[in-house]
Amino acid sequence: MNFNLFGHSDQWVAVDCGITLEQVPGALRPSVQMPDLSFISARREQLAGLIVTHAHEDHLGALPYLWEQLRCPVYATPFAAAVLRHKTRSRRGVLPSSLIEIEPGEEIKVGPFDIEWIPITHSTPETCALSITTPQSRILHTADWKIDADPVVGAAWSSTRFGELGKAGVDAVICDSTNALRAGYSPSEGAVAAGLSRAIQVCTGRVVVGCFSSNVARMQTLSSIAAKTGRYLGVLGRSAEGMARCAQQVGLLSPQFQPIHSEHLGYLPPQEVLAVATGSQGEWGAALHRLLMQTHPDFALEAGDTVILSSKTIPGNEEPVARLVDGLRDRGIHVIAADDSALPLHASGHPCQGELTDLYQLLKPTLAIPVHGEAEHMAANANVAREAGVEVTLTGRNGDLFYLSPTPGVRRRFAEVGRLAWCEETERLIKV
Ligand SMILES: [Zn+2]
Ligand SMILES: [Zn+2]
Description:
432 residues, Metallo-beta-lactamase, Chain A, Rossmann fold, binds zinc ion
């Protein structure tokens, strides 16, 4: 549930506003939680705007619930804006009255901040790192990122702009720590496309591929494989359908991406079916769960069909994923999980140590501030930064203020922080 504030001369700009899903013991569905924004909502006249770096839930999912507390202009790329509109409608939230679309690569002024949107590769399209400049300093907020030479959808990784900024001088880098414990480089979406193609080519019955619905590249890949293998593509699950529509609206998917309605999918011969489905984490009520329980209204699997989990199991979801896999196998359905396949069937969207080193060496910042991860991930990211030649690293906790002048430092517990949860019954936010 990301939320960052950058301050200069009594003005703030916010970056991202996300949710997290917290499994409460005994509940069927996880609880939707988000940051308590009391600190900034109490001084919202000082908030010049909010920038959405990309379309993932942990970066924009809280806006439908919280924008009313901020009432500032919101800036997002066309795809992230489409996703925000879609999520706001489905959550019956409040859409920002000023939602400004920015193309990757553009430069804008928000209050006293000059902000450049630098395209960066990640597991959802149009992700942008931000160069945030004031007359005194320049910081680079990476957003979520990886180095992907073949991202399938969108432009390939380019180091050019980061190298130029490194030469011009970067005071601080605020950087994604998710995969900082892993050596090497994360595989490319292009490698996953080749792996999925090999796995699907040898299948004889229906094939259903579970993946994260925001992974538009994976949908594009499956559409291409469907065309190559004489199958029709179906999209099962509301969030996947919504994401595919948003991506189509802004022209991210090829014109050949033409999924057929799931009602028609059920009438096709098994060998002509390829469907992408939600629920790869074993989520209750998602498409894969319905296929397991045989409660999907339009479509059913039989012995001899194949389910591919093109995702990693998020820690904490091991049990529902195991139930899904075992239940499908009990019915004679082949299950291939990316977690234990020799083929590359999933790629993370976050940088491993090799990628972190490369970026630090390009940007040569004075200071690195790792974010986006548990304490151990941020500590590992700081280690990589120091080994890459960054002199100062600072790590902290939610609510800490990192300052750049006169010399870099941290003021602990500067802002009060906490969590809010969305209560389905009362349709209200409650403190947790
Ligand atoms: Zn994220
Ligand atoms: Zn992300």
